[in-house]
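Appendix B. Raw example, untouched.
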Amino acid sequence: MNIYVGSLHFKMNEAELKEIFEEYGEVTSAKVIIDKYSGKSKGFGFVEMPNDAEAKKAIEELNGAEVSGRNIIVNESIERTDRKSNFRGGDDRRGGGSSGGGGNRRDNYR
């Protein structure tokens, strides 16, 4: 199960995050999300646990728990869809939107 962990202390690293969740079972990976421009933590991350029962127990017990002076948010991560693939660039009418084109479509005026 993939778990979202928010409101992390900005100095928390992946080893520390993994250690917190290992108290509840096996952790396959722990990732703290880093801002690509500043190189600093964005304050959230993800933990992957293969056993769903252990993951659910970790979520129940760690959500709202104080870690490094902050109350963390822990819940099941919902996989997001690729937002770019659904982008159409405007409405579906011919000659409109950002797709260009002029629109000499006579059927729009009938």
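End of appendix B.
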